[in-house]
Amino acid sequence: MIPQLMEVMFKQMVKPEEVLVFVDENGEVVRETVKDTDTLSLYKSISDCLMSLTMIDIDDFEKIITTKLSCQLDNGIYDNIALSKLCWAFGAISGCMSEDAEKRFIVIVIKDLLTITEKRRGKNNKAIVASNIMYVVGKYPRFLKAHWKFLKTVINKLFEFMHESHEGVQDMAVETFLRICQTCATQFTRKQMDESEIFIDEIIENLEEILSDLTPDQIRIFYEAMGCILQSDASQEQADRVLKLFSIPNEGWRKVISNLKTNVAFLQDEDTLKSILIFLKYNSSIASTMGTGYFSQLGTIYLDMLSLYRIISKILSDAVSDDGNVSLSLPYIKMIRAIKKEILRVVDYFIQTTNDPVLVIDVLCNPLFEVILGDYSSCVPNARDPEVLRVTTAICDRCGYKISNYTIPILMSVFEPTLNMINQDFMEFPEHRVWFYKLLLSITQNCFSELSKLLDSQFSVFVNSILWGIRHPKNEIAEVALFLCLELLQKFSQIENEVSNSFYSKYYMLIFQSVFFNMTELEYREGFRVQTDILALMCSLLTTPGKIKPSILSGSNEVSNKDHIINFLSSLIKESYPYLIDKQIEVFVIGMFDLSKSIENFRAIIHDFLIQIGEVPENNEEVLQKEILLQEERRMRAEGDKKSSGEYKQYI
């Protein structure tokens, strides 16, 4: 039964995502241009099934593989579709065999595929076999790591495929090279037995020849792969290897910068702009994978990149001044804006991958902020790049509190200009919106104390921008705004002084009301967990002695803060949902405070309330009695959890 089921899986096998060259339904060998999500989903299902069947009976799987390969070899019956499905199935079961079985399988399959390559004639046929070889070797990194000679042979074969003219083969070769480098990087940087030199040095020495037939986009992927290799290089030669890798591109970069210093009009040349953009993309690719070691290259171009950024900013400003926003749609302006964005990406990727925040603070921040912050605040909204917000967020995340001295200048430069761009509607500048709130969240997490330096009017706008964000129809933005609101409340809950009490007196009721009614609207239900986290925290603040100054919310010594909020919320609910009876509202609101320190029980009572307001029940009294019983059960469970927690703490 299992062999027959395996045969069915083989026949129904579909193309995996990694394969770019295949035979289409017309029998033509083509290059994939669009990903088919249905095909990928089917591949995943068939792959899971084959893995399960192989783990049950690996002998049957091996028998089917060898039999089908023999048919291709012995009978001279070459079927590209059948061969491809065979290889896709073999790649699909990666990881479910023992090392010995895996070794035996791979040797058989690759040996037979190479034999088929020699026997086949025609570029299309060879392209299909090459595609299958690349797919299979890329799926078995464990075997490659354990067999250096085989790994080196595979890499050299990939370098051969990088010169292949058939459409799609070169793309698949560089992408397979990247996947192998992501999993086997250390093998390239250590001295292997019987080798005269380390393989990474051999690659760099032959770099010009390896890359000679690749397009810039393919070379960019190659540099990303080299970043994976060099990131694993812990030797003192790492910096020299990086500079050797960029020796030819850096030579062209230096010529461009030298020409710009004497004549800015040099940027009018289209070929020059393309060469700059390509150079920067090579750098952003390797920066995204290499980490701190990339600084040996970044340090040689950093100040020149910022000088170029400043020059482009001036060109953009002059263009907008002369011709208005319409100038931003001109091809030349789009090209130089692309260069400007790529400069920011190089810095952003390095900051995200480096493990040296001191280097970022001491070397990168000051010259970077001097250039980008002033430019961002002064240029017209349509010319502002969201990458400025992104790289600033990356710096805050990476450097933490060490970035505190830059917090206020950052906010002064980007907060109001960005807010004025996005507060007119919910549609314009979508990327700016996302990174605006992510930046505010990062600042609140890492530099909270600096927010106290804002003027009252500025902080009020800060809070209101958060409450406006939680109502955004795009879930990603609303979610970040909710986390920001929660983070702000948590930070204030950790301090007990005049500053926190001033915050609560001004914003507690506004935040509570905004989040509560945001939660009751169906379109914002995806934020339920964070909404309830916020409300539970706010309720618990009023039930914890000393957290909030007495009567600061009520304004009267005769009414406690808790009672004031209960009355306030009850009135709002009654006004919004008149079909709820008073006792029903009272049970719910008091329950919120009683269960605020047990988040699961708190969520349960909120969930029940949302169900109640979603429909008008015929018998509210019956619903009320059920709710009272549920409340009592939850309260007892919460008290039991609290007691158990206290008993446990006695023993630790």
Overview in brief:
The chain is an all-alpha fold and 652 residues long. The protein contains 29 helices and two strands.
Description:
It is a single chain. The chain is mainly alpha-helical and 652 residues long. 74% of the residues lie in helices and 1% in strands. The chain is built from 29 helices and two strands. The protein has helices spanning 2-12, 37-56, 58-74, 80-92, 99-119, 123-138, 141-146, 148-161, 169-188, 199-205, 207-210, 216-231, 238-245, 247-262, 270-290, 295-323, 331-353, 357-378, 386-399, 404-422, 430-446, 456-469, 475-493, 498-520, 528-543, 561-576, 582-594, 599-614, 620-649; strands at 21-23, 29-31. A hairpin with a 5-residue loop joins strand 1 (21-23) and strand 2 (29-31). The longest helix is centred in the C-terminal third of the chain and has 30 residues, at 620-649. It is globular.
Going across the biggest sheet, name each strand in turn. 1-2
Question: In oligomeric terms, what are we looking at?
Answer: single chain
* Radius of gyration over all CA atoms, rounded: 31 Å
Sheet with the most strands, sense and barrel status: 2 strands, antiparallel
Low-confidence stretches: 643-652
Share of helical residues = over 70%
The chain-level structural class is mainly alpha
Mean pLDDT across every amino acid position:
88
- How far apart, in Å, are the first and last alpha carbons? 57 Å
- Global geometry: globular
Fraction in beta strands: under 5%
Number of helices: 29
Number of strands: 2
